[in-house]
């Protein structure tokens, strides 16, 4: 059995807390408070982190840490990345430029964890009829490196597990590179 610390980074309102709750085994610890930022358009926002434990079918465990999305909480992102096995970058696909919304998170990964296995999840793809996955992939690759891009509904536990499966593939691939390199 292995434990994997997974950090969920992303833009405000992308569905990080929702994603964590969708696959949690039991109680989710969160630090949601009443939102005072009218630009976010939601009632509550995360100010420290969300945490949940997830048992995988093979006996491994995921320890999920959902981060606050606002740039003013950016100081906590590198702290949570310490000792991480992987990262999920989550963006709201319905935004005009979802990858641009991830710019600060991509920079944080490039600066503090450049080789950390990661995937990009694009939530709300049903609200983004003109979503260009190839353009998103190109922009992510230009800012960090080529990463899997997975459109998903963050409320759907099965879809979130597909995203985690893609991340576990990245983690395994990185382990092989580290052994051979």
TrEMBL record:
GO MF, one example: hydrolase activity
Keywords: GTP-binding, Hydrolase, Nucleotide-binding
SUPFAM superfamilies: P-loop containing nucleoside triphosphate hydrolases (SSF52540)
Keyword Hydrolase set for record: yes
Chain coiled-coil ranges: none
Signal peptide: none
Record carries keyword Protease: no
One Pfam family, short name: ATP_bind_1
Entry's family note: Belongs to the GPN-loop GTPase family.
Protein name: ATP synthase
Phylogenetic placement of the source organism: Bacteria, Pseudomonadati, Pseudomonadota, Gammaproteobacteria, Lysobacterales
């Amino acid at each position: 059995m292995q434990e994997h610390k997974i950090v969920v980074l992303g833009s405000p309102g992308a569905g990080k807390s929702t994603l964590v709750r969708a696959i949690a085994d039991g109680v989710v610890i969160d630090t949601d408070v009443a939102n005072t930022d009218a630009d976010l358009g939601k009632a509550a926002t995360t100010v420290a982190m969300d945490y949940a434990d997830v048992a995988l079918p093979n006996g491994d465990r995921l320890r999920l840490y959902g981060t606050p999305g606002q740039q003013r909480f950016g100081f906590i992102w590198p702290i949570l990345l310490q000792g991480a096995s992987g990262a999920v970058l989550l963006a709201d696909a319905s935004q005009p430029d979802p990858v641009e919304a991830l710019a600060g998170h991509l920079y944080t990964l490039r600066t503090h964890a450049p080789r950390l296995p990661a995937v990009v999840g694009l939530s709300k793809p049903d609200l983004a009829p003109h979503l260009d996955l190839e353009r998103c992939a190109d922009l992510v690759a230009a800012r960090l490196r080529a990463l899997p891009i997975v459109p998903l509904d963050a409320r759907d536990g099965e879809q979130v597990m597909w995203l985690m499966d893609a991340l576990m593939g990245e983690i395994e691939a990185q382990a092989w590179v580290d052994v051979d390199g």
